[in-house]
Amino acid sequence: MTVPHPPTGGSAEQTLLIFGASGDLTARLLLPGLGGLLATGRGKGLSLLGSGMDDWSDDRWRKRVADSFAAARATGPEVEAVATGARYLRADVTAETDLRRLLGACRGRPIIYFALPPPVTERACHVLTGIGLPEGTRLVMEKPFGTDAASARALNDLLTRLVPEDQVYRVDHFLGMSTVLNVVGARFANRILEPVLGNQHVASVDIVFDESLGLEGRAGYYDGAGALVDMVQSHLLQVLSLVAMEPPPTLQARDLRDRKAQTLRATRVWRDDPVAYSRRARYTAGEIDGHRLPSYADEAGVPSDSRTETLAEVVLTVDTWRWAGVPFRVRSGKALSPPRKEIGITFQPPPRVPTGLAGCDRPDRLRFGIGFGPDRLRLDLNINGPGDPRRIDLVTLEAEFGPGELPEYGEVLKGVLEGDPTLSVRGDTAVDCWRIIEPVLAAWHADEVPLLTYPAGSSGPGGWPPSGLPQRTA
Ligand SMILES: NC(=O)C1=CN([C@@H]2O[C@H](COP(=O)(O)OP(=O)(O)OC[C@H]3O[C@@H](n4cnc5c(N)ncnc54)[C@H](OP(=O)(O)O)[C@@H]3O)[C@@H](O)[C@H]2O)C=CC1
Ligand SMILES: O=C1O[C@H](COP(=O)(O)O)[C@@H](O)[C@H](O)[C@H]1O
């Protein structure tokens, strides 16, 4: 028996079918993002169908949708139409009959958003292979995509049995952040920046995402992931790929994703030595902004034998003509203060400072704020200071990036609804991101790298980067 395929051809009708409609992601990020998108007048002809194990009525689901839209301050005719027309079906998405019923209830093209625990997503995809999907169906996959390179590859294989690769949207909400995309604009729309961004002039690149948030009740997911998988494997490697990629001829999906993929294929742990060039730590009890945090080990839901890190640091090389020899230091941690979320590009010292100029002892830097609005581009330059004209001072030129039109999840959903996978992660890239961090994970699992501690509210364990790390100087 095949699924009664709803008509898709020629009409703009599509249904966003959310698996996991009663979950946290749906309420907190997905629906507000959708509201923001609809408020711009996009999404005409969209139906919203939620499903979950809970026996919700349409009214209860509509209230959830309306509350999330209101939280995003989303208003307008499209917002109203989707919220009032939203439907809910109770279903176990690992059961074939339930899946058939859900697909049969879609109007126009189904867009299936898997807002589910990853093992459930995988089971649902297996069952879908026995059913088949209406032509044009799009699949939206949440992170984490697999648990290592082999499982990500297997998941890719499973998905390509369902739809072609360009109908699979692997979500990384950092790619939906306008500030992350601003990196591409700043790099490639300025003659004075791009030529100096490479190993001829750059000493090191830091990609840092230090959050003040602690575990926030997410032990069930986070303790199985840790900072390296939660932030570096996904978001920060995506950021790295945009910082280091060669100029794409266009920003269309194929060109941009090819450039990113090329960059990540050339990326690996510095000197292939994860023991010397990675570090892990986790927070002990402390205070942030007057708010007391327990030790990570004492957070609700963390198993007593947990060895999960809440801070991960790794030095990578992007082994290309442009970047060979420049260390990329990637770091993310929780419960840190002050929060620091930026890409910092440190330049080599000038080859020769004229004798007689004093104070030129700090390097030029170009910095991009990421996801910590209002985000800024900062350029630290050495110029003659006030008073003695032979004395150099470091000053910072600053410009604010305009806020993006849409919240991150709105941007991600825009791509999905418009059939543009530019801002989603391609299958081979998802595998490569696991390949890059696997040696680090292996060294950590083998306890070859100590698990350090830092008090919540501090700036971390200190002493990074490793003293042996060369800075590119010429
Ligand atoms: N929450 C977040 O901030 C983020 C989450 N993600 C990812 O999003 C995904 C979902 O996470 P999150 O929303 O937090 O998880 P939740 O546990 O809050 O929600 C999971 C949802 O899946 C439903 N579900 C589970 N099993 C089935 C089944 N067999 N059939 C139908 N529905 C089922 C649950 O329904 P019921 O409750 O009725 O069992 C629930 O609605 C995960 O992959 C996560 O990694 C990614 C980024 C951020
Ligand atoms: O995906 C995740 O991202 C958040 C950080 O991103 P933000 O946009 O919410 O600032 C991180 O806190 C979380 O642990 C991780 O799962």
TrEMBL record:
Which molecular function terms from Gene Ontology are attached? glucose-6-phosphate dehydrogenase activity
Keywords from UniProt, A to Z, are: Carbohydrate metabolism, Glucose metabolism, NADP, Oxidoreductase
Q: Name one Pfam family in it.
A: G6PD_N
Q: Which residues form the active site?
A: 235
Domain of life of the source: Bacteria
Domain Glucose-6-phosphate dehydrogenase NAD-binding intervals: 18-182
Which InterPro entries does this one have? G6P_DH, G6P_DH_C, G6P_DH_NAD-bd, NAD(P)-bd_dom_sf
Q: Identify the enzyme class.
A: oxidoreductase
Which residues are involved in binding substrate? 173, 211, 230, 334
What's its EC? 1.1.1.49
Q: In which pathway does it act?
A: Carbohydrate degradation; pentose phosphate pathway; D-ribulose 5-phosphate from D-glucose 6-phosphate (oxidative stage): step 1/3
Similarity annotation: Belongs to the glucose-6-phosphate dehydrogenase family.
Protein name listed in UniProt: Glucose-6-phosphate 1-dehydrogenase
Q: Which organism is it from?
A: Planosporangium thailandense
Gene label = zwf
